[in-house]
Amino acid sequence: MILSRKSWTAAAIVAGIFVATVAHAEPYFAVRQGMKCNSCHFNPAGGGMRNAFGNGWAQTALPARRIEMPATDNWTGEVNRFIALGGNLRANATYNDIPNQDAQSEFDLEELRAYLAITAVPDRLAVYIDQRLAPGGSTNLEAFARYMTKDQRWNFQAGQFYLPYGLRLEDDSAFVRQVTGISFATPDRGVQVGFESAAWSAQLAVTNGTASGPEADEGKQASLRGEFIQNIWRFGAGFNLNDTDVGDRQMQGVFAGVRTGPVAWLAEADYIEDETLGSMERTQWVGLIEANWLVTQGNNLKLTAEFFEPDNDVDEDEQTRYSLLWEYIPIQFVQLRAGARIYDGIPQNDLQNRKLYFVQVHGFF
Amino acid sequence: MPTQRFWMLCAACALSACAGNGEGLDANGRPEGEGSDTLEPSFESIQDNVFTPVCTGCHAGAAAPLGLRLDEGASYALLVNAPSVEVPALRRVQPGNPDASYLIQKLEGTAAVGGRMPLNAPALPPATIAVIRQWIANGAPNIAVSSQATKLSLVAPADGSLKAESIVVAADGSVDLSLLQAGVVTLRASGGDGNFESGNEINIAVAVAVRSTQPAVLVIETQPLARDSYELRINGGEPVALADHGGVPVDGDGDGMPGGDFVAHFTVEEAR
After folding, report:
1. What is the sign of the dihedral through the CA atoms of A147, A153, A154 and A155?
2. How far apart are CA B242 and CA B259, in angstroms?
3. Given CB atoms, is A103 within the 8 Å cutoff of chain B?
4. Distance of alpha carbon A229 from alpha carbon A117, whole angstroms
5. Are A87 and A113 in contact (CB under 8 A)?
6. Do B25 and A348 touch (CB under 8 A)?
7. Using CA atoms, how far apart are residues B228 and B246, in angstroms rounded to an integer?
8. What confidence category does residue B249 fall into, taking pLDDT thresholds of 50, 70 and 90?
9. Which end of chain A is more exposed for a tag (fewer CB within 10 A), N or C?
10. Which chain A residues have a beta carbon less than 8 Å from that of B58?
11. What's the CA gap between A77 and A83, in Å, rounded?
């Protein structure tokens, strides 16, 4: 049966209603456009709810084709000057091929998230909530109050939030996110001060250092992130120190982005010194290079190579991971992703040598 | 355009030759000798074969999400009898009750909150989860495997005794005598046919007394036993297992591993 174009469009819209979106970020968008993360996001370091500009840009610049609607029907996320909403729902079909084990395949609802921003004083004072509603019960991920100075240069926030460090990648399983322990799955509680200028973005957060777990000691975690943004390139650095009763964990890293024609490049490297993993301090390296090739509007090809050195004092334990993804945005609010991730590690560990293939339907508003 | 693709491939190739060959390392990527190889229902084995290689990618050290560290030396105290942060009414590991342990619910994907563990990775094989379940069912003890499990032996009556009014069982180590509650020790008569699965078995009431404690010697008092074949059973598993003072179930079946029911058969002949 051959479907008409209208039928395909209708089917995509219906699928979009039931797809899951993810509260994650895509730094390569910012690199490609030469914009700062807070140009599109409520969070100054990116990720989470899109603001009105971000919603508008996503509906016009991203999709291969746009369903035209009356201007008054365009989604901005703003209910009124004081309240803004957003949401994500993401659904996956995955196939895991692990050596010496039966392969696993499943359909999965990865998450359903809702965002709410209540701006009591426009552009100055707001409360923000990022709530994961599914799967399972509701879990709060971010909940903080934020004050901004009149010139919009300084902002202060307190509550629970994602820590500022490195690239806020969509993929929490990327080595640079998983190994550093700072991702969209590990918010923490504390306070943060941020600075924004035309070319600079910086944040300093002091938090419990327990990734929202109960505080067990007097030690705290400090996270510092600074980024210098230009039209074609950007460069940033981060520092994180977690002081605990069982030792310190210190991370320092650099990250960068550059646009060369239709390709937006990202890179990050982190060096970790961890006294909390055993009797001896352990030092680790982790890195990522990512290329995003805008083949045509709405079609992005992503190639990623990652590296992880679990212990600098142990030879031949290194791990790598490679990913190839095709990301297609057929119409506004809907993204289809298909890809493969190849893990390569020591031959004794089957999990380090697995292959993951997936298809994802992703809706966002 | 071709130049862009060239540099993309170069970037990938630059890192592609960097995975380690694993020489001299165990499956956890640690120098050989640091851990055990075979997964068994003991905490040490589960640490070495599951927590360390699978979970500490995220749940390690100060970076552990929700403060749940699963690296060696920290994991036991943060699991056993520790309340879950996501569902405080549940313990992460409730000794003796794997179904009520939040750890099992997270591994099986039935937890009330959040995703299945390991997050963003393949699920653990059912056989691996079954071993963790067994460890929890055994009381979630924190000791190394097996060779220290107390063994039991039937001292009296000898097979073919003319009479028997008490049964003596000796242990080669200590036994937590507070576990000698109803149902842990059972005695059945075969019903005359020597078969304990024919459906005509007779339960015999018993009372357990302790003759000595180090090592433990149990005296199982009963009514005078008639001529028949008898089966004595002492629980080494659910619902309540006889165990030592460290919570390690007795090695009832003598396979060198904690757990397994102790089963002894004997016959009583008619006096002539």
Report:
1. positive
2. 9
3. no
4. 26
5. yes
6. yes
7. 37
8. confident
9. N
10. 178, 181
11. 9
